[in-house]
Fold this sequence. Notes:
- By secondary structure, the chain is an alpha/beta fold.
- The protein is built from eight helices and eleven strands.
- The termini are close together.
Amino acid sequence: MASDKTFRRILLKLSGEGLMGDREFGLDPDTVDRICQEICDVHAAGIEICVVIGAGNIFRGVSGAAIGIERTSGDYMGMLATVINSLALQSVLEAKGVTTRVQSAIPMTTVCEPYIRRRAVRHMEKGRVVIFAAGTGNPFFTTDTAAALRAAEMNCNALIKGTQVDGVYDVDPKTTKNAQRFETLSYDEVINRNLKVMDTSAIALSRENNIPIIVFSIGEPGGLRKIVHGEGTFTRVG
């Protein structure tokens, strides 16, 4: 991979589960603090950064169907849960001295800004970290798709996805001993092989806008800093 100079602006996609640490749900303060410190380190290197967070640590729209919640309502509940995660990240980042803005695709002006593309770009140009909450604002779309959409709208050089494993594997490495990790993949390979990197619409959107997807382990201390310098262990899609 090229040097960190290539990455003028990146979008970091975090899963809600990535904020749980060893807990079964919610936020683990030590894990959130560590992730925020990594964002601060990358920001201090002069790289513009925006973030999209999932809500699997609080609520999943699809899980609501299991207890009788209609899918659309469940998805909106999940979007609201991403706002909770976004505000938590904002609070910790600002305690570390990094000016941060949360923009929500579902307007709730009492707690954050509405999503306005030009304003978000301006925030990043001024050196602020922007956290995009509430997904795309529409049901039936995942936060993966929201990440790909925002990465395209912000003209990001890369979409960096922090996961629980250090790249993309042919099968789940947590359950299969000899799982094969890929160094690089094309967008079409991911779609054709049904690899669980991101959902198909997110992959297609990234392909159309020529945005590379870099998958790494958010659990590795210093992992994000290594990625933007072209180091560490990861899979590059694109």
